[in-house]
Amino acid sequence: MDTAEVERLIEEGIEDAEATVTKPRVPDEDHEDAHFAAVIVSPAFEGLPLVQQHELVYDALEGYMTTDIHALEMKTYTPEAYEEHEA
């Protein structure tokens, strides 16, 4: 699975989401390295605690977290919180 596919799954699974997915480290040539990092911005996160925001992301990734994705570092923001973060 590549970063574009992870982005697509998140954006299709969470309303009005914009996801930026990267690989946070150099892949290990001897092992399948399926570590990803994601920044996800969506109004769907409004009013939800962090745990529920992350659950929305996991739900969007369906069963891939146990098969194609070994680890996912994520930062979730509402659009307003993201603007403040970037300022």
From TrEMBL:
**Matching Pfam families:** BolA
InterPro entries listed in its UniProt record: BolA (IPR002634), BolA-like_sf (IPR036065), BolA/IbaG_stress_morph_reg (IPR050961)
Family (UniProt): Belongs to the BolA/IbaG family.
Q: Which PANTHER family match?
A: BOLA TRANSCRIPTION REGULATOR, BOLA-LIKE PROTEIN 1
What's the protein called, per UniProt? Answer: BolA family transcriptional regulator
